[in-house]
Specification:
By secondary structure, this protein is of the alpha/beta class. It has helices at about 1-5, 10-20, 30-35, 70, 75-95, 95-105, 110-120, 140-150, 190-200, and strands at about 40-45, 55, 60, 65, 130, 150-155, 160, 165, 175-180. Helix 5 (about 75-95) crosses helix 8. The longest helix is centred in the middle third of the chain and has 21 residues, at about 75-95.
């Protein structure tokens, strides 16, 4: 997208362009530009009286990214999904054991087995689940699963009134992996509750 995106002044122009061409070489700067165009990127001015962003946790930040300004548009959501998949594939190829450890949280005795699985996963497609932190990322997770192929599944995580979460409709199969996606991560509270919900329903594999 590169130089073309830098010349765009209106969000509608981006959507019209994507109707005819879905780029596959976006950079971090390209996504920052997209977020800015659609009102999803805010950076505090370097001034003592400039406002801060107040987060749901009660903390404050000098910047904020609202991915929902892009994800509410199916074309932009698809673009973000494709870009994220490429990033994951690259990281997975370079750090297969690390991705497994994030999910399994293994003891020392389990790591040798995970290294063996990693050697298999390194040459295979992503086989497992893509789950979105509720409620905003459920549809995006399903879109990512679709782009990953028929070997990938998605189903919703449920948010309870006390802010805890549960995932009880499905279980993680043998040699399947789980990818949990979130639009904004600040204190990690929501995504950690989502991960715990998946682990609670899969104690024998978590």
């Amino acid at each position: 997208m590169g130089s073309w995106l830098r010349r765009v002044k209106k969000p509608e122009s981006v959507l019209r362009k994507l109707d005819f061409h879905m780029p596959n070489n976006l950079t971090t700067d390209d996504f920052r530009r997209l977020l800015t165009l659609f009102g999803g990127y805010w950076q505090r001015l370097n001034h003592p009286r400039a406002p801060y962003a107040r987060l749901a946790s009660g903390n404050v930040s000098d910047g904020y990214v609202n991915w929902w300004t892009l994800l509410r548009y199916p074309l932009l959501a698809q673009l973000a999904a494709l870009h994220l998949i490429e990033k994951i594939k690259k990281y997975e190829k370079e750090n297969p054991e690390r991705l497994l450890w994030i999910w399994y949280s293994p003891t020392k005795l389990q790591r040798e087995e995970l290294k063996q699985r990693a050697r298999v996963y390194k040459e295979s497609k992503f086989n497992g689940w893509v789950l979105g932190v509720p409620d905003g990322m459920t549809q995006f997770a399903a879109m990512m699963a679709r782009e990953l192929g028929s070997h990938c599944h998605s189903s919703p995580i449920t948010k309870l009134p006390d802010k805890s979460m549960k995932w009880e409709r499905d279980t993680v199969g043998e040699n399947e992996r789980v990818l949990v996606v979130e639009d904004v991560i600040t204190t990690r509270g929501s995504i950690e509750r989502a991960i715990e919900a998946v682990r609670a329903g899969n104690r024998e594999r978590a």
